[in-house]
Amino acid sequence: MRVSLIQIAVNEGESVESRRRRAAALVREQAGADLVVLPELWTTGAFAFEEFGREAEPLEGPTYEAMAKAASDAGVWLHAGSIPERDPEGPLYNTSLVFTPSGDLAAAYRKIHRFGFDKGEAVLMSAGRDLVTVRLPETTLGLATCYDLRFPELFRGLVDAGAQTLVVPAGWPERRRAHWTLLARARAVEDQAFVLACGTAGTHAGVPQAGHSIVVDPWGEVLAEAGPGEEVLTADLDPARVTATREQFPALKDRVLGLEPPRR
User: Which residues form the CN hydrolase domain (predicted)?
Assistant: First the structure.
């Protein structure tokens, strides 16, 4: 199974429409891959808070249309990263879109954990509530976004729902890059799953981005890692590694659930 992570640069001076066209062209160049992944909020930049409301679009808006066509043209499964989605009833969501090779929408995931500590995304966007998985011919994807990576219980929920490959688009800042790599590997090890963590390059509203998109196998080994700039990271995965790892080292079977807090 071939995966391509498009670590697109998001910089001031390029319009959203120009970047949308450029991203679509990069997706088309990945014809032959099985799965292509874009980062979080690549249309606006994850830290460009003032742009969220201005550039928010309905689910089936211009980014949806451009990415559906790009997926169909390339004949790939496409995780199109996330967009600032405006719900018909008014709220904004950080919403990821996944398309089939025929350009149909397979799933949408609204980010559950919003970053900002009572400012930024945490107050500008509403929280999603649903775990989302997507069945591909080779594997089942579990969807998460950026800050979600810090919450292992979400990923355990995805594994319980059948996920074998965890896809994490992000706009992760360079100053916390060590956490990005560490957490991606930790989620792979503890959930015995592939992790595809796709970040951005460039600078979002003055915040340098980490880049360093990474592909990790179910044993925690790094199969491929990008540098800091714009690039396409490609890796070949053996989906059978998930089943083999879980059978050879069946740690997931030893989980103890429903523990009570200590009595005082």
Answer: 1-239
**How far apart, in whole angstroms, are the C-alpha atoms of residue 244 and residue 156?**
18
pTM of the model: 0.97
| Residue 69 domain flag | yes
Q: Is 111 a catalytic residue?
A: yes
Residue 159 within any structural domain of the chain:
yes
Annotation says 198 is catalytic: no
Virtual CA dihedral for 92, 94, 99, 103, nearest 10 degrees? Answer: 40
Total domains in the chain come to: 1
pLDDT tens digits, the chain, 264 residues: what are they?
A: 999 999 999 988 899 999 999 999 999 999 999 999 999 999 999 999 999 999 999 999 999 999 999 999 999 999 999 999 999 998 999 999 999 999 999 999 999 999 999 999 999 999 999 999 999 999 999 999 999 999 999 999 999 999 999 999 999 999 999 999 999 999 999 999 999 999 999 998 999 999 999 999 999 999 999 999 999 999 999 999 999 999 999 999 999 988 888 988
- H-type helices in the chain, by residue range? 16-28, 49-55, 62-74, 121-124, 152-160, 177-191, 240-248
Q: What is the CATH number of the domain that holds 172?
A: 3.60.110.10
Catalytic residue among 111, 121, 198, 230: 111
Q: Which entry of 55, 85, 121, 146 is annotated as an active-site residue?
A: 146
Q: Which of 40, 55, 85, 121 is catalytic?
A: 40
12 catalytic? Reply is: no
Q: Report yes or no on 258 lying in a domain.
A: no
